[in-house]
Structure formats: C-alpha cells, structure tokens
Amino acid sequence: MPSDAPHAASVHATPGYWAEACKHLMKKDRVMKRLISQSGDVALQTRGDAFTTLARSIVGQQISVKAAQTVWERFAALLRSMQPASVLGLRAEDMRAAGLSARKVDYLLALALHFEQGRVHVQDWVAMDDEAIIAELVAIRGIGRWTAEMFLIFHLMRPNVLPLDDVGLLNGISRSYFSGDPVSRSDAREVAEAWRPWCSVATWYIWRSLDPLPVAY
C-alpha cells in the first residue's frame, strides 16, 4: 500500500470474490503464490462510506501514514459527524489548525460541495464501469486518477484495478519480480497480465509485501 494512506480503523466487509481471486493468482503466478501464502487470513476491507473514503484519501495525499492518521483524527474531531454538510460548516482556519494545508482545505470543501449538491451519482456507481466512475471523480478538484483508483479498490471493491501511478505497487513489483531493479509502468503492466481479472487483489498483496499491516480508506 502507498505510504500516504491512513491505517485501518473500523472496517466492514471483505469482497466475496477474494477466495476465488487468490486461487487464480496462486495458480497463475509463482510470486503471488508466495505472497498470498505469507499473508495469512488478512484481506481487503472497506469502511463502507463513499464520502469518508474520499476525504481520507485527500487528507493522506503526499504525507506519511502516521502523519495522515494524526491529521485525520484532528480533522474528524472538529465534526459532529463525517457528513458533507458538517464539513461545509467548518471554518477554514480551524481546518488549518488541525494540520491541513490550505490546498487540502480547498479540496475537502470541494468534495463536500459535490456531495451536498448531488453532483456525484453515488446510486449509479454500481452499474457504471471503472473508467466512467474515474471520470466522474477526477472532475472534483483534488482528486486525480490515483485517488479515484484507490476509491475503486477500497470502497467499490472493483476486482481488476491496476493503479500504475502508485509508487508502492511499482516498488513492490521491483522487489518481488525484478530483484530490486527499477520498473516502468510498461514492466508493471506486463507482470499484471497474469493477474487479470484480479489486478486489485494482486495489487493488495504487493502492498502487503511492503507493509504487512493492512490499510483501508
């Protein structure tokens, strides 16, 4: 998992396809067989709330796991509930005092406004394909493709997401498949051919090979 994601607090569900995916990956990929065997019974889990998942991802951008968790807790303490309307009711200076940069304050307010105004179609996401959801999310200021892909994996639990912008994924592939030599996006894509249609699951195990403690948004 990338280093800028907060560690899991409360989580809810593991995807029903997990066992099938692991069986496929262990059959198709010798490295995956080793990594999955080493990881025990842990699996991907979701917090179950779209707004919280996206807000946490914004808070965690470009800072360490520990720093992200500290800032998130301070930010959450300002709110009666983690709802868009509550975020919109905060003063920018209080958010800054919680450790958020001015840019992240703007991003969180933009996110809350999109949800409050119904400009994201949460109820339609189940029927939408991955790229359509990414396109909707990246229209929100502060959310790029990487954040949208984390949302697909951690909230919607889409099974075949390959986040090629993720430094942790590239580092893990480098370590496990290329003896530590640098890898390109093209290299990673080639390795992942054996993972399809379960790239999200394989990515999660690559993250585990770097940090055994599971993470959730």
> Do you know the CATH architecture of the largest domain?
Orthogonal Bundle
Element pattern in H and E: HHHHHHHHHHHH
Give me the number of helical elements.
12
For the largest beta-sheet, the strand count, sense and barrel status come to: none
Task: Give keywords.
217 residues; mainly alpha; Endonuclease Iii, domain 2; Endonuclease III, domain 1; 12 helices; 55% helix; 0% strand; globular; disordered N terminus
Description:
This protein is mostly helical. The chain folds into two domains: 18-42 and 161-210, Endonuclease Iii, domain 2; 50-154, Hypothetical protein, domain 2 (Endonuclease III, domain 1), CATH 1.10.340. Helices cover 55% and strands 0% of the residues. Helix 1 (18-28) packs across helix 2 (30-39) and helix 8 crosses helix 9 (145-154). The longest helix is centred in the middle third of the chain and has 15 residues, at 102-116. It is globular. The N and C termini lie close together (11 Å). 36% of the residues are buried. Mean pLDDT is 90; it is low at 1-11.
Sum this structure up briefly:
This protein is an all-alpha fold and 217 residues long. It folds into two domains: 75 residues, Orthogonal Bundle (Endonuclease Iii, domain 2), CATH 1.10.1670.40; 105 residues, Orthogonal Bundle (Endonuclease III, domain 1), CATH 1.10.340. Helices cover 55% and strands 0% of the residues.
Question: Topology, pairings included?
Answer:
Layout lengths: L17 H11 L1 H10 L10 H10 L5 H13 L6 H5 L3 H6 L4 H15 L13 H9 L6 H10 L12 H11 L7 H8 L6 H12 L7
Helix pairs in contact: 1-2, 2-12, 3-7, 3-9, 8-9, 10-12
Keywords: DNA damage, DNA repair
EC number: 3.2.2.21
Pfam families: HhH-GPD
